[in-house]
Task: inverse folding
């Protein structure tokens, strides 16, 4: 038996093993940091989406359509103040109002947007059902 082999690993083998282990540990730490960052960003986007969805529900359930043009406001959601902007315009045939909604907050890069369509004030709900959503007419 070779006495050199019976004593264990050489210094070079230990250094190589520690280098491989440290590279793997650093990759796992970096992956964890990336995952935490993305998780927080997704949570912010979900909050932004709930702001635009809440605003769209308010617009769709209001008996009067929103004013044409650009308007904005603030809403508190998820512990943050969100700035929402809506741009309303008539469709080409004048029967519908197209509304583009967006929400953002100044302290993060989270943004969300949503486009909705509702019946204009010129048309009553008798042609479209009680919800105001367009129905096909025969």
Result:
């Amino acid at each position: 038996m070779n006495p050199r082999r019976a004593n264990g690993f050489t210094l070079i083998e230990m250094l190589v093993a520690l280098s491989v282990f440290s590279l793997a540990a650093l990759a796992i730490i970096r992956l964890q940091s990336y995952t935490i960052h993305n998780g927080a960003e997704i949570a912010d986007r979900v909050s932004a989406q709930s702001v635009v969805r809440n605003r769209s529900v308010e617009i769709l359930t209001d008996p009067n359509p929103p004013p044409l043009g650009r308007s904005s406001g603030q809403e508190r959601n998820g512990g943050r103040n969100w700035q929402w902007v809506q741009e309303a315009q008539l469709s080409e045939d004048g029967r519908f109002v197209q509304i583009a909604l967006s929400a953002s907050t100044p302290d993060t890069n989270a943004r969300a947007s949503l486009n909705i369509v509702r019946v204009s004030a010129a048309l009553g709900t008798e042609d479209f059902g009680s919800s105001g959503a367009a129905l096909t007419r025969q």
Summary: The radius of gyration is 29 Å.
